Request: fold
Amino acid sequence: MAQENLQNKHTNSTIKSSSASTESSSSLQEDEVKSASRRKFLKNTAYTTAGIGAACAFLPFVDSMNPSKDVQALASIEVDISAIKVGEEKKVMWRGKPVFIKRRSEQEIIEAQKVELSELKDPQADADRVKKGKEEWLITIGICTHLGCVPIGGQGEYKGWFCPCHGSQYDTSARIRKGPAPKNLEIPPYEFLNDKTIKIG
Amino acid sequence: MSQKFSFDNQDEELSPKQQIEVFHSIENDIGQSITEKSKVASWINDRLPIVATLENTLKKHPYPKNLSYWWNFGSLAGIALVLQILTGLFLAMHYVPNTKYAFDSVEHIMRDVNYGWLIRYIHAVGASMFFVALYAHIIRALFYGSYKAPREVLWWIGIIIFLLTMATAFMGYVLPWGQMSFWGATVITNLFSAIPVVGQSIVQWLWGGYSVDNPTLNRFFVLHFLMPFLIVGIVFLHLMALHTVGSNNPSGVPMKTKKDSIPFHPYFTIKDMVGFVAFFIVFGYFLFFYPNALGHPDNYIPANPLVTPPHIVPEWYFLPFYAILRAVPDKLGGVVMMFGAIILLFFIPYLDRSKIRSGAYRPTFQKFFYVFVVNFIFLGWLGKSPAEGWYIWASRIATFYYYAYFLIILPNLPKFEKILPLPSSIDEHYQQSHKHK
Reply:
């Protein structure tokens, strides 16, 4: 059908132009310019609609690569922290990454708090990195912000964490102090469900 | 160009070679009137002639101007193939080809993966839609004699695509590892055990073991992933052959002058779009309302090597051939007849002795042809029915007609049949069919 219509159009336009030859040539030209701009508009409209349609049709495919529901369902974990002694660190897996749960000693807390913000590469106060009243607990994602290695606890000049890959050094608040890493260790979203349990994620 | 050949006499025939020559002379003639390319386009084209190739295909290459909607199914099969590859690619990102996890991973796709249900159902329904397009495409070729010289190679490549698609679809159906997957795979691979002497060794080689098991599933997944890309390559050969000999048309009369032709763009781009819309309406109907109607419910039961379902059936697109297999009361004989039914298609260019192409001018042929189509559908219905009682006899009669159509009717019918007067050209056919509208 569409083809026939187009063909009819074709024949119509040839008939038109042959009959128009008796008319003034300027009106013929005007006609052609008009139909050319109409055609251009129709074409652009068609292409745009098709383009938007194709893009929309592709969205589900792109979204299928996002975390699936079973992955999302495991996106938060609960951790029992009652067995961790002062000065100790526990590593847990959360979303496929290590999370450091560190129970800091009194001295480590003081050291972390007394640092001037101006000394820091990624300035952030220790109070902003722990929950109020729970300064003892520092919970960080154990991935060096340089290139993704796992730093080693209790090592380095600042007695925080030391990354064996490229020598980044973190303090007792897990803030970057020396080395190539640009940022402090990330703090995951977490909350204390009670004194013994935290929920990460 | 047209001066080289004279068409004064309607009965005068062009040899296949001449038909190709005329076709190319028309193509060359059109080529001279092609518009100039932009600077960027010609810069690229001087180094990699894709711009010219595309332009040739769309604007220069002459297509018969009388093509009917029966000529839409090639592009529909094409879009179906693209869709299968696209959805398959995303399914493969979530599927696990291991007997322990395959079934669950498919359920994981259906329940957990974002839009996984949509992608999987497009893939499953898409397989059926692909075969709808393929069968319609083949039926069109059989009716209009599209396999006749000079299009034999084009036809053969088409049959190869058909065979590869069937193999791909079969292996794809095994992947969900449901009951029908497992027992379908068992039955179909066992077909090869009918081969004398080496049969059992071949089957073990196919399985990678002593039954359909994990090695089988794993290799089927790999091959199911690979083969669509082979098909794409062969589709390009199909198009190459098509562009060398030109499209057949409803009149079957070869192209003789430029007047017989129109370019692909915009005429057939727009017409193919109309076809796509109709195709996707049917597709959408199944996809969104009856996504499982074309599958078998038993395939939602995990594979169990200890229990065969009471009634095994292949996917609907294999049913006619399955009926032929069951019609023969002999293991090897059944397998030979089933594969033979497809291999036979390769010989049609020589079996069909008709001097004219199009069935539209062969009234007697048409009767046999329609019986053939109904018979083929009947075979499909028989393939779905239990293999007992009168069904078996009906299958035998239908199988006989399937073979007789190709081996007896096509070669001998031209000796007796009366042929309607052919139009002298595609243009004339076009004028005739549009006179009263």
In short: The first helix of chain A runs from residue 2 to 20. The longest strand of chain A covers residues 97-103. Chain A has a mean pLDDT of 84.
